Amino acid sequence: MTAIDRGDWTVLAKCRGMEDALFPEPAEQRRVRTLCADCPVRLECLAEALDNRIEWGVWGGMTERERRLLLRQRSDVTSWRSVLCGKKVA
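Above: the chain's sequence. Below: its structure in token form.
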């Protein structure tokens, strides 16, 4: 069983240990998003933010504004983890 399977995806995140990575100033968002681009757990990170309605910061390469728009457009989704990562939620 991998860290991702256990739900401990954060240990594999490229931003792990970078205090300001999740909550950059607006001018830094582009730089942080490039860090997310090839992160091995980008989808798990994004699913975490969408499923838990995290309102602030960059998660999975998306800003809070982008996530709010996606949540409005896809209000039918009940589990983003299932949609993005193919994982069934118990």
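Helices lie at 29-37, 42-51, 64-73, 80-85.
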